[in-house]
Amino acid sequence: MVKFLRLPYLVKDLVFKEMELKEILLLSFCSKRVQKSIKQQFRIEFNKGFRITCGMNDPRMCHWQDEDEKRLELIVDHKENDKKVISWKYVNSLENLDLLNEFKFLEEKYSYEACDIDLKPGFTFEINGLRCRCSISLDLKSGIPTLYFEKNVMKKWPMELHKYCVELFRTTSDLEMIMNLNDSSDLHENQTIKDSYLHNSLENLDPRIVDEFFEKANIQNSFSTVMQRLEGFVGDDSKLWNIPNVFIPNSWVHARQLIRFTGKHANFSVGDYRDDVTQDLNAFLKHWLNSDNTNLETLVVRGSCSSTKGLFDGIQTSRWDPAKRQAKYVSNVPFETLWEYRFGEGCRFSNYLSFWPNELDCTDAFDIVRQSDGLIASIKVDISAFFMFVWHSRFPSSTIFQ
Amino acid sequence: MSSTEQGTSSAAPAEPTTAPESAAAPEVPESFYYVHGKDKVVHKVSAGALQHSALIHGMISNLGYTEEQAKANPFPFENIDGDILQMVVDWCNQHKGKPTPPEDTNLPKQKEKLFDLVLAVNYLEIKELLTYCCKQVAMMVKGKSPEEIREIWMIPTDAEDEAAEKEAKKRAGKEAAGETAAAAGDAK
User: Fold this and answer.
1) Is the confidence at residue B24, as pLDDT, over 70?
2) Whole-number Å distance between alpha carbons of B146 and B134
3) What pTM, to 2 d.p., does this model score?
4) Which of A184, A189, A239, A172 is nearest to A209 (CA)?
5) How far apart are CA A265 and CA A334, in angstroms?
6) Distance between CA A301 and CA A267 in Å, rounded?
7) Does A125 touch chain B (CB under 8 A)?
8) Which CATH superfamily is domain B1-10+27-140 in?
9) Residue A1's closest chain B neighbor by CA?
């Protein structure tokens, strides 16, 4: 037996160094004194904050995990170095919870894999004043614990856990969330999220659900989805328009709403691909020329723009002048990180170039100049896409990414 | 003091003639020192083995004992149980002059002794053994639930901590009251 709390400072330090994050989190649930000791001594490795993944639907999952399982990870590099800390699930009742039965069901469902879990007796603990009763199982291979809660804590648990981990491990409060929008039960009140990714879905969603989500989720940096369609468009007052970096290739917005966007970078598909969006883009350009929006850097609109003449109707344009700006635009966001599903590989992060090199070549672009502040924007159009590059720096030095 | 000379256990070479890394150097007879724990049983350990302990190595360097002086003045470690000191001495002998492998399998396996061993090793400043012991301590709770961790590492619950704190406050209050009464009596 080891009286852990009576170990000298240096010894505890060495013990912590030998433990994994998931073990230290479970240790912290033992008592407030242990929590204090961890806060005083444990140093977390370099990281980019935590990620909460809800409703995984990932074929790479171990068979005893299922679609309802949610997890918390420490983000290190968005690849193999990210550390799974803990998983959790909600059940109707802990009283009658028969985990063995549950695993038996999953074993039958995924008969090609061997069941390898360790069921433990339930326990009660407290985080941030929230008293939690749960059952627990441990994956013997990975050591990842899964907690089983009754549904009454599902509104509070994920965000309280995040807050708790930020305080316990004294790390950045940056939170990344991967979720399904039709299950936003994990957000019960206003929550600041740095980056938000959606799981792929074939279901068409009511846009009101999306607006409600953006109402609750204060997204500080980016929002992206690869496949999630809506039954209409997001609202004009949706908070989506304020997100700095947006990637939505699924016609969530109408071209006439583009004037609402106040972020830095956006890549939208607009309306129906058969709709001609020339007039709406013309209105957008006029709106930008008359605005004081200094945020916008790059805008890509996937839609049909049939007429260059119509696009620049009433707008003064000029061709490239090497004395006024350089030929090639340098994007501050060279890569787009997307959460996508790949057959046979499951869900994973992929980095894509935000622009192909030829897209950034603005030698043949049309330049427009805002009279109020002299800001130049280069406009390029092809049959299905509209590009706008705002020259906040007219002769930026190239980076290695370009 | 009951004195039993040890240090020539089967794992430890009795009298190494030459250090392997200094074959060309002139032969230097190995010096021995003596340590004892709470049980007063004296262990004879070579200076080479004791080099693992930064504390004892420092003491040896500062004292500059002759063989006779060392024998007459064993280093007393009254805060270390005899069997624990024996484990430490055995480990030092086994690893004399050798780098410690990262996964040292020669460490005693008795988990109930691990706590005392860790404290002793920390006190004696045996860095490599301490790292390994801490690894063992961490291993004890791998794959365990919080309830199991609490049991293995003897962590009191919040309620137990609160009760202990209350008790300590009560005791401190009583002691303070006693001291005040005694001081008042003295003043009279």
Assistant:
1) no
2) 19
3) 0.83
4) A184
5) 11
6) 6
7) yes
8) Potassium Channel Kv1.1; Chain A (3.30.710.10)
9) B112
